[in-house]
Design goal:
The structure is a single chain. The protein folds into 2 domains: 70 residues, no CATH class; 208 residues, Fumarylacetoacetate hydrolase, domain 2, CATH 3.90.850. It contains 7 helices and 19 strands. The strands form 3 sheets. Strands 1, 2, 3, 4, 5, 6, 7, 8, 11, 12, 14 and 17 form a 12-stranded mixed sheet that branches. A 5-stranded mixed sheet has the order 9-19-18-15-16, with no helix packed on it.
C-alpha cells in the first residue's frame, strides 16, 4: 500500500489518503475514527494497517484524482528525523570527507519538512551553494532497541523518498550539519510512503536525481557503505527508535558541489529525486534577494 498527506481545494488541512494508481481515497472515508495522519496510523500498529486493508476491499468510498490535490510532506510530526552522512563511498570521496568506522549521524529539524511539488526558498545572503541529495527514507514501525541487523528490517513500517537539500558553504563552515540541512523546506519527502511489504530488498533500488532536465545522480541503494539493516541496528544501540522515526540513509555520488563546473540549485531550478517502486519527488526553488 502507499499513503500520502494531501490537501484538497476544499480543505486547507493535510488529510491522510491511500493512493491507488492516480487516485486517492481518504482514510476518513474508509474507517470511522480512522487515523488522520501517517504518524497516528503507524502508532496503531499492525491492527491499524489491517483495518484499512480490509476497508479497501470492495469500498465505494469517493476517489479523488491526485491531479486535483496538493501534497504535504509524506511524513508529518515524526518523533525524530535522523540523517546519515557519508553512506556512499562515491559521495564521501567527492566531498573530500572520510567515511569513518561508525556512521555520521545528525538530526534534521521539523521545520525543514515539506512535500512534493512545493517551493523551497532561501535568502541569497545565506547561500548561493545549495545542493541536492537523493536519499532513501526509512520509517520505523515498532520500537527498536538493541536489535540485531538480522532482525532490523522487521521494525521497518515503510519507505519514502527524501531530498536532503544542503547549503554547502554552511556545511563546510560549521562543525555540525543540522543547520545547513534544516533551512525551512530543505527536507522534501514523498510524494508517498510505501509499506515495507512493497519493497522486497531496500538494497536493490535504483535512485536518481534530475536537475533542470539533466540527470546528475544515477545509482543503486546497493552501493550504501552500511545497509538499512546495519544502520537501524547501529542506531538502536544508543537510543530507542520510536514508531514513526524517519531515517534518511545517505546520498550517492553526483552532488553538484563536486562537479566541474559545479551545479548548484538556482532561482527557479526544478529538482526531482526518485527511487524505483517508491516515487518521484519534485521541488521548485526560489532564491530571495
Amino acid at each position: 500500500m502507499r499513503f500520502a498527506h494531501l490537501r484538497r481545494p476544499d480543505s486547507p488541512s493535510a488529510l491522510l489518503a491511500v493512493v491507488e494508481r492516480d487516485d486517492a481515497i481518504l482514510v476518513s472515508d474508509l474507517v470511522d475514527d480512522g487515523p488522520t495522519s501517517l504518524q497516528q496510523l503507524i502508532e496503531r500498529g499492525d491492527s491499524g494497517l489491517a483495518e484499512i486493508r480490509s476497508a479497501l476491499e470492495g469500498t465505494t468510498a469517493p476517489r479523488h484524482p491526485l491531479g486535483g490535490c496538493d501534497f504535504a510532506s509524506a511524513v508529518l510530526a515524526p518523533p525524530a528525523v535522523l540523517a546519515v552522512g557519508l553512506n556512499y563511498a562515491a559521495h564521501s570521496s567527492e566531498l573530500g570527507l572520510k567515511t569513518d568506522t561508525a556512521p555520521t549521524v545528525f538530526t534534521l529539524w521539523p521545520n525543514s519538512l515539506t512535500g512534493h511539488q512545493q517551493t523551497t526558498s532561501w535568502p541569497r545572503a545565506l547561500s548561493e551553494a545549495v545542493d541536492y541529495e537523493a536519499e532513501l527514507g526509512v520509517l520505523i514501525g515498532s520500537p527498536a532497541k538493541n536489535v540485531d541487523a538480522a532482525d532490523a528490517l522487521s521494525h521497518v513500517w515503510g519507505y519514502t523518498v527524501v531530498n536532503d537539500i544542503t547549503a554547502r558553504n554552511i556545511q563546510f563552515a560549521e562543525a555540525q550539519w543540522s543547520r545547513c540541512k534544516s533551512f525551512d523546506g530543505f527536507t522534501p519527502t514523498g510524494p508517498f510512503v510505501v509499506t515495507a511489504d512493497e519493497v522486497a530488498d531496500p538494497q536493490d533500488l535504483h535512485i536518481w536525481t534530475v536537475v533542470d532536465g539533466h540527470t546528475v545522480q544515477d545509482a543503486s541503494t546497493g552501493q550504501m557503505v552500511r545497509s538499512v539493516a546495519t544502520l537501524i541496528a547501529h542506531l538502536s544501540q544508543s537510543l530507542t527508535l520510536l514508531p514513526g522515526t524517519l531515517i534518511s540513509t545517505g546520498s550517492p555520488g553526483g552532488a553538484g558541489y563536486s562537479r566541474d563546473p559545479q551545479i548548484f540549485l538556482r532561482d527557479r531550478s526544478t529538482v526531482t529525486v526518485g527511487i524505483d517502486g517508491i516515487g518521484e519527488l519534485t521541488t521548485h526553488c526560489r532564491i530571495l534577494d
